[in-house]
Design a protein that fits this description.
The complex is a heterodimer of chains A (101) and B (277). Chain A has 101 residues and is mostly beta strands. Chain A has helices at residues 43-47, 74-78, and strands spanning 3-7, 21-26, 29-34, 53-55, 61-63, 84-87. Chain A has a single domain (3-87), classed as Alpha-Beta Plaits (2-Layer Sandwich).
Chain lengths: 101, 277
């Protein structure tokens, strides 16, 4: 299982292998997508407010446009299969009270 | 939430993922909730035991990187009681399905609640027997189709919360997989609580419950959960109110005498000492 790192301004390869782990690094935030765990249930696609998630030909999740990502973490919270890892860095640290509200 | 998913990897056996559960099953959200609660409290995985019974929920111990125990159907609480008595320093989490906790294990459930032993029981309620093919469970809502009630369930439904309250559990809460931020919050409260704590999580079974009742895909099931629950922790409802939305929230959070402490005091009063560690 290899990790592809996609930095700000770069684009991910058009064809991803089923087991690829992609880490999108945008400024201080990052979103990791562990495709090997995906079952294609559509929960993240339906809940993504930026509408940037899609299933590819292998019925696995991929990010269509990382520039539109707002790093809200809804995909990570909604996914029952631990596919997404969100590290919002310093973005949301203000106002955090530890219980997720 | 600056970090999601990352911190709980230390509590997950990531090498055995993906989970065995169907696409869109809410059980994974509950495991995530358990991991998040562990991480927020900062529990040492060596000092935690996750005990599971049989059924879809019984797979939970396979995915947590803590001590784990896969036990017999309905008897998870009996094993957990023994574990806790033998080593009261351990944090014992019991994961049970609705059929596991309320049907075959109903007796263990009420008596563990009656003793108020310091265990955290998490009841995964999907309203159906998922693993064995979608049979009617004691929690199946009246009128729902299952493979053993094709014309709609006629038996009345068990209310986990009312049962736990009546049996004497000192922390009782109910939440749903729709409220994804509430799951770790309630589990954390339950883990910190001294005494028998019950957290019922309404979860979706898209494969059987959703398909047989034509609710739709997993997202539609989450919306169904939202529409059929109300965030107001009230109990002792009248019969008319019982058919309304299922109430969620924290129903009881009492400081009642905990079984092991009472037992230890009794041992000391007899001039002996509680042998366990």
């Amino acid at each position: 299982m290899s990790t592809l790192v996609v930095k700000a301004g770069e684009t991910a390869p058009a064809r991803l292998a089923p087991g690829d782990v992609i880490r999108y690094e945008q400024l201080e935030a990052s979103l990791t997508v562990r495709r090997a765990y995906c079952k294609g249930c559509l929960l993240c696609i339906d809940s993504c407010p930026a509408k940037i998630l899609k299933l590819d030909a292998d019925d696995l999740i991929y990010v269509t446009d990382i520039d539109a990502c707002i790093f809200c973490g809804v995909c990570a919270g909604r996914c029952p299969d631990f596919v997404f890892v969100l590290d919002a860095g310093t973005r949301n640290k203000e106002g955090r009270n530890g219980d997720g509200h | 939430m600056p970090k999601l998913g990352l911190d709980i990897d230390q509590y997950l056996r990531t090498e055995v993922l993906p989970t065995v559960w169907c696409p869109g099953c809410g059980n994974g959200n509950i495991v995530e909730g358990i991991g998040t609660a562990f991480q927020r409290i900062g529990l040492d995985p060596e000092k935690v035991v996750v005990v599971g019974g049989i059924g879809c929920s019984g797979r939970t111990p396979f995915y947590v990187r803590t001590n784990a125990m896969h036990t017999t159907h309905g008897r998870a609480l009996a094993y957990a009681t023994g574990l806790k008595m033998a080593n009261p320093e351990l944090t014992v989490v019991v994961t049970m399905g609705d059929g596991d906790a309320l049907a075959i294990g109903g007796n263990h459930f009420i008596h563990a609640a009656r003793r108020n032993i310091d265990l955290t029981a998490i009841v995964y309620n999907n309203g159906i027997y998922g693993m064995t093919g979608g049979q009617e469970a004691p929690t199946t809502p009246v009128g729902s189709r299952t493979t053993t009630s094709l014309h709609g369930a006629v038996e009345r439904t068990f209310d986990t919360v009312e049962l736990a309250l009546a049996a004497g559990a000192s922390y009782v809460a109910r939440t749903t997989t729709f409220d994804m931020q509430e799951i770790p919050l309630r589990i954390e409260e339950a883990l910190r609580h001294k005494g028998f704590s019950v957290v019922e999580v309404l979860t979706q079974c898209p494969t059987y419950y959703g398909r047989l009742n034509r609710i739709g895909d997993p997202s539609d099931m989450l919306i169904w959960e939202r529409e059929h629950t109300a965030d107001e922790p009230v109990t002792l409802l009248s019969r008319e109110e019982m058919v309304g939305p299922l109430r969620t929230g924290v129903f009881r959070n009492n400081e009642d005498p905990e079984y092991i402490e009472v037992y230890r005091e009794m041992c000391a009063a007899q001039g002996g000492s509680y042998a366990a560690s």
